[in-house]
Design brief:
Blueprint (H helix, E strand, L loop, with lengths): L1 E3 L5 H15 L3 H17 L6 H17 L3 H24 L13 E3 L2 H14 L3 H9 L8 H13 L3 H14 L4 H9 L4 H6 L2 H6 L5 H13 L3 H13 L7 H13 L3 H14 L7 H10 L3 H14 L4 H13 L3 H14 L4 H13 L3 H14 L4 H13 L3 H15 L3 H11 L6 H14 L4 H13 L3 H11 L6 H13 L3 H14 L4 H14 L1 H14 L3 H6 L5 H5 L9
Antiparallel strand pairs: 1-2
Length: about 575
């Protein structure tokens, strides 16, 4: 604030002072009404208020509009305020000093021009006009940029792909505030070495007690952003076990996400549940949690999670993604598409929302549109394997095996030879008869590293089924199920047991699969097929019933792709009632 000597009468000053006091008190609706009236008076009588008073009124009025989320109107008033400030600066330069050193507490304190520009940038980001936001902040001289301005600039530069400028701004934030952890994460995400980032905080770590964990924290997230999931998990676990950081929700959420990236869904769900118990209002990461529950067939739990998240906030992407996962795994792809689009509208950087929308588009046959979404997800999260899996599935769905092979090889080279990348490459090799042997070698390597990795087990079983090596497949599946229970593995084991005429045990496996996921259609079909073979008369009756029902309820349930326009107009359905 810049104090200026009063120029008008005490009565005129008191009005502007009242507006300023109400603004400071957070009485935004009152400020909006009064400042609007006073600005109209000023327009009708330009001599009524001084240039500095009019500048203040414009800023306070714009602030109240910003609070009401009328961002375009706020930008307009902020622009007028800056123009008024420019005119004020010119007049103050030519006006001689009065020499009046006595300043009363009621003397004017002008709103900061830099703060006004920051608010304008906030408006532009809310309006998704990032270029305008960058332009207004770039206009502030470097020496006058506050930490929050540098932080906003860093994030905007990063989003625009201007990595060098982003790194410079993040470093400036750390220079001013060495404990700005989100700025540290920003630097690590831009491939700045962990040791370099740690050196920027070493002085504060050494000077403040109980901060020795920070260097380990930086090391852990350096591993996260280089895709070294195993070392990241081990490092965060060592932090989480320390008494002072035990039961930290952010660390548990990071662990859950890392287990998910490593393909360890069981531990991922466990960590998400622990974090949720500690913080019932937790939103961050719940989209991934909902996706994992949906994959396991726990659709009732997914529905409950979605409703709970909507009650917390419908202005975050996560509740929309969770409800979208429920729709997707209920085969309501149009609804999943709408919900994914809504989530992206709320947060264009939501990787899970992009994956949901991409998967819905793919299953609706709109493969090229799906490819665009998976590519954007890869840009935002280059270390997440599921982003690449979605894109490769699109390539395979459109018979672009060559593109799929190139992408799988790139992932293998970039993320390293682990069970997940080996399995992904093997999946593509299985599509080409020429590379069947290579697929077998890759899967054997993956299972040597992780014998319990479900995707590798499923693909190896698929290969053994093609070769009709059912006994080998049964042994593989029994071994995989020794320490875990999975719907798909039990169902495939049932299929293999049918192939070797072990019908009773096959029925048992289908039953276990359906108990884990009542919506698993293939297990249900396997069981029904066996029942029909056991009772030909009953089978004929069942076929008649199926013919009668074929165009009825089932058609209504899954024929929802024609309902897309309805869902766009019925937002009250989406867990917000």
């Amino acid at each position: 604030c810049v104090p200026l000597a009063p120029r008008l009468s005490a009565a005129s000053m008191s009005v502007v002072e009242h507006v300023r006091e109400m603004a400071s008190a957070g009485l935004h609706s009152n400020v909006r009404l009064l400042s609007g009236l006073l600005l109209t008076m000023s327009g009708n009588n330009p001599e009524l208020f001084s240039p500095s008073q009019k500048y203040q009124l414009l800023v306070y009025h714009a602030d109240s509009l910003f609070h009401d989320k009328e961002y375009r109107n706020a930008v307009s008033k902020y622009t007028m305020a800056l123009q008024q400030k420019k005119a004020l600066s010119k007049t103050s330069k030519v006006r001689p000093s009065t020499g009046n050193a006595a300043s009363t507490p009621q003397s004017q304190c002008l709103p900061s021009e830099i703060e006004v520009k920051y608010k304008m940038a906030e408006c532009y980001t809310m309006l998704k006009q990032d270029k305008d936001a960058i332009a207004i902040l770039d206009g502030i001289p470097s020496r006058q940029r506050t930490p929050k301005i540098n932080m906003m600039l860093a994030n905007l530069y990063k989003k625009a792909g201007q990595e060098r400028s982003s790194v410079t701004s993040y470093k400036e934030v750390l220079r001013q505030c060495p404990l700005a952890l989100d700025a540290i994460l920003g630097l690590l995400s831009l491939s700045v070495k962990g040791a370099e980032v740690a050196s920027m905080t070493i002085n504060v770590i050494q000077s403040i007690p109980n901060l020795d964990w920070l260097s380990v924290w930086i090391k852990a997230y350096a591993f996260v952003h280089t895709g070294d999931n195993t070392r990241a998990i081990n490092t965060i676990c060592s932090l989480e076990k320390k008494s002072l950081l035990r039961d930290n929700v952010d660390l548990l959420g990071s662990l859950a996400d890392l287990y998910f990236r490593a393909g360890d869904n069981k531990n991922s769900i466990l960590k998400f549940e622990q974090a949720q118990m500690l913080d019932p209002y937790l939103i961050k990461g719940m989209d991934v949690y909902g996706y994992l529950l949906a994959r396991e067939g726990r659709l009732e739990d997914v529905e409950n999670l979605g409703c709970r998240l909507f009650n917390i906030s419908d202005q975050h992407a996560e509740p929309w993604v969770v409800s979208g996962c429920h729709s997707f795994y209920s085969k309501r792809y149009s609804r999943a598409l709408y919900l994914g689009a809504k989530a992206i509208q709320l947060n264009s950087n939501s990787v899970q929302a992009l994956l949901l929308k991409g998967a819905a588009l793919r299953n609706m046959g709109r493969v090229q549109e799906a490819i665009i979404h998976f590519r954007e997800a890869i840009r935002l999260a280059p270390c997440r394997l599921d982003c690449y899996e979605g894109l490769i599935e699109c390539y395979l769905a459109s018979n672009s095996i060559r593109e799929a092979m190139v992408m799988a090889n790139n992932v293998y080279k970039t993320l390293g030879a682990n069970a997940q990348t080996l399995t992904l490459l093997a999946t593509v090799c299985l599509e080409d008869p020429v590379t069947q042997e290579k697929a077998k070698t890759l899967l054997d390597k993956a299972l040597t590293q992780r014998p319990d990795y479900i995707k590798a087990v499923v693909k190896k079983a698929e290969l053994l089924s093609r070769e009709q090596k059912y006994e080998d497949g049964i042994a593989l599946l029994r071994n995989a199920l020794a320490n875990q229970s999975d719907c798909v593995l039990h169902r495939i084991l049932g299929d293999f047991l049918v192939a070797v005429n072990e019908y009773q045990e096959a029925m048992d496996q289908y039953s276990i699969a359906l108990s884990l996921d009542p919506n698993d259609q293939k297990s249900l079909e396997g069981m029904q097929k066996m029942e029909k073979e056991e009772s030909p008369t009953d089978a004929t009756q069942e076929e008649d019933v199926d013919d009668m029902e074929g165009s009825g309820e089932e058609g209504d349930l899954e024929g929802s792709d024609s309902e897309a326009a309805q869902w766009a107009d019925q937002e009250q359905w989406f867990g917000m009632q």
